[in-house]
Amino acid sequence: MLTVSKLSKVLPDGKPLLKEVSFEVGEGEMVGILGLSGVGKTVLLRCLNRLTEPDGGDVFLKYNGTVLDVAGWRDRELREIRRHFAMVFQSFNLVGRLTALENVLVGRLGCMSTLKGIVGRFSEEDKDAALSYLERLGVGHIAHRRAETLSGGEQQRVAFARARFQGCHVLLADEPVANLDPRTADEVMMQLAEITEAGGICTLAVMHQPDLVRKYCQRVLGIKDGVVVYDGKADLSDEDLDYIYDRKAADASKVA
Amino acid sequence: MKTSITSTIEKLPTLPKWLRLRYFAWLLGIGAFVGACIYLRFSPQALVEGIPNMVKFVRQLFPPDVSVLPSLLKPAMDTVLMAAVATVIAATLSLPLAVLAAGNTGMPRVLRMGSRFGVEVVRVVPDVVLALVFITAVGLGPFPGTLAMAIHSIGMLGKLYREAMEEIDPGPPEAVAAVGATRLQVVRFAVLPAVLPSLVGDTLYRFDINVRSSIIIGFVGAGGIGYRLIVAMRLFKYRELLMILMVVFAIIWLTEKGSDRLRKMIIAEPLLR
Fold first, then answer.
1. Min Cα–Cα distance to chain A from B199, Å
2. Who among A51, A83, A109 is closest to B185 (CB)?
3. Closest residue to A118, CB basis, from B178, B185, B190
4. CB A191 within 8 A of CB A88
5. Is there a contact between B172 and A93 if contact means CB atoms under 8 Å apart?
């Protein structure tokens, strides 16, 4: 279980972006994050695996009876923590000149020493495992193609395979389907839901498609003005959406 | 809203003031250029009057003295080898320096500044000057010339490599860091694959330049065909000179073609596995 407590982040200009954000995500649960652009959804995700340093609050990850305190660690310990947090991106962020399989293998670097990782000799076991993850997501046939030659849908599936291969307990997805056509987006979201459930992973997905959120997420966090204004079932009403997206206010100002 | 838009439009006609300033800047620039030419005693007249002399010189070049060709093969090979060895040394040393110097590899500040400064310093000294310095240390021959080119090339390649690294998309390195990879692993798996084509291109381009440089460096006695060229010139052996120039031309043309082909081969193949 992922527990986020009073997480806050202040922008360089001193304005608070996130104000004591607290929530929990259970194992096998997929939570959609909705909110206006610039509200700090991406920063929230990045504070969880500390690609961005939060200014306050706690993050705990509980798995297999261990509790991991994310805050305060550096270097080796920080790398250890990041292994448990996989991240997938809107623009996929695969290494274009490496093959799909190599991109999946990169997921294992967190468990390897610097030297072993740099030599880049992955064991046959690792290669088989990486390939099996690709196959399970239906992209085994493109394993030996360079990532830059793949379609968006294929690239995001490779990124999912990397996350699975990494052995993560938390999956942070930053607009995972924003660059995909509607049909592929639907398929990819379905696979994300399957991965979440099968792996008992806590998944947080920043989304801009309320319909996909209603269809595949179990819960929704609505973020507005730096605080969680909605935390509940994913079948949110249009009024809820209007509130999260501040649409009433926009209408009102138009009239005035 | 409306008022601000109309007021900007009304302001447009006041632009000519700027235009006049720009005019002035152009006039100043052209004036400075003409002044510099006069100072440098540019004289089209002298050039035209000198044409007969040039024709006389060119006629003395022909026919090329083919008999010296066999004796030119070794110096020609020296020239190419000097350039190749210098480029390999420079590339090998420039890569780690560039990784340390790049702003996006997360290296400690001290190392970053140190390697930047080092690369900056060696770039300032021209390779011919370095060659003269090394000749005083180790004597005439290809070794001081190669060393000079290698060191100067570090200054150039170190900078080009670093710039290539700093220009890459930050996304993939961040994704690799996010799985818990160390900084060097991020370099190996995200930065190097992305910059490989640029590095290959920069290096082979540097080799092309070094082939030319090693001819010039030969002038000061640091080995290669350049030395033969300057000697032939000093001794007024113009027919031999033409033969040497033809070999020089062939060297440059062939190495350029060769490096072009090599570049295409390397970039098509995913080398980093």
1. 14
2. A109
3. B185
4. no
5. yes
What's A1-84+170-179+203-256's CATH class?
Answer: alpha beta
B153 Cβ partners below 8 Å, 6+ apart?
A: B86, B87, B89, B90, B91, B94, B127, B206, B210
On chain A, the residues whose CB falls within 8 A of the CB of B182 are 79, 109, 114, 117
Q: Which amino acid is at B216?
A: I
Per-residue pLDDT tens, chain B, 273 aa: give them: 444 555 555 555 565 666 677 788 889 999 999 999 999 988 888 889 989 999 998 898 889 888 888 988 999 999 999 999 999 999 999 999 999 999 888 889 999 999 999 999 999 988 889 999 999 998 888 899 999 999 999 999 999 999 999 999 999 999 999 999 999 999 999 999 999 989 999 999 999 999 999 998 888 887 788 888 898 888 988 889 999 999 999 999 999 999 888 888 877 765 544
By three-state DSSP, how is residue B169 classified?
Answer: coil
Non-local CB neighbours of B39 within 8 Å, separated by 6+ positions? none
ipTM: 0.88
CB-nearest to A95 from B178, B180, B190 is: B190
Q: Tell me the pTM.
A: 0.83
Kindly report the length of chain A.
256
Chain B partners within 8 Å of A96 (Cβ): 172, 193-194
Q: Does A112 touch chain B (CB under 8 A)?
A: yes
Domain definitions of chain A by residue range = 1-84+170-179+203-256, 91-167
Of the candidates A49, A96, A109, which has its C-beta nearest B176's C-beta?
Answer: A109
Q: Using N-to-C axis directions, what is the helix angle for A152-165 and A124-136, rounded to 10°? A: 130
Residue A222: both structure tokens together: 């609505």
Rounded to a whole number, what is the distance in Å from the CA of A151 to chain B's nearest CA?
A: 17
